[in-house]
Amino acid sequence: MGERTRVIVAVMLTLAAIGAVGLTGCTREKPAPTSQPDWVPPTATAVVTTPGPTVGATVISVEETPSGPEPAPTSPPEASPTPLPSTPSAPVVLPTPAPSTPVPAEPTFTYVVGPGNTLFSIARRYDTTVEVLVDLNSLASADDIQVGQELRIPGTAPTPIPTEPPVTTVHVVQGGETLHTIALRYGVTVIDIMAANGITNPDRIYVGQRLTIPGGTAPPAPVPDIHVVQAGERLLDIALRYGVGLRALQTANGISDPDHIYVGQRLVIP
What we know:
This protein has helices spanning 3-27, 119-125, 130-136, 179-186, 190-197, 235-242, 246-253, and strands at residues 44-48, 60-64, 108-112, 150-154, 168-172, 210-214, 225-228, 266-269. The protein is an alpha+beta fold and 270 residues long. Among the domains are: 3-26 and 43-64, no CATH class; 108-154, Membrane-bound Lytic Murein Transglycosylase D, Chain A (Roll), CATH 3.10.350; 168-214, Roll (Membrane-bound Lytic Murein Transglycosylase D, Chain A); 225-269, Membrane-bound Lytic Murein Transglycosylase D, Chain A.
């Protein structure tokens, strides 16, 4: 048998012996596992001894490094995803606020408190409320006003209505007229005529007196009536018939004696 064959047989016998020892160890109670360092793969070292003078055979010894639990396979580190290039966003443009237009203040006008005025009557007259007038004028209460006080009223002052001058008429007193009949004719009172003319006694007026009629509407100028004297008529009868005074009838016709009239005479009835 050659030397090489002997070496192979020796290795096989050694491996068989190691396998038998391993089977025997499996039947024994295993000790509690102890923490061991990271697993190191077993390495087999073959020692070849050259044949000595006595044995004449080559001895092969195999040393086995005790094995530990197999380490968990480590996975390669995950590659971090490549970030996508970000698309630049358009800048946000905020609208420029329009300049605020100042709100014009509400117009007001001044009113002077007169006798008998109340805040309620003033508010009603100018179409507002008592509360608005109190706030606008910083009044303590609705009763806090007095005659001559200036109040601010919301709105615009009303346009004053032009007043027409009072109509005055001059009346010439005729015979038989009284202040009462004159007042009735112009639609005024006797007191008005007396005050306008400084008359203290209403019975003391005379024919031809010029009287100022205040505020009266002058009646249209009457068309004089013409009366033709008939036989048997007297001037007094004619005056009574037309409701005029005898003296007024004489004055209108220039008659000095009321008994001197004649048939067919044309008399003006004032």
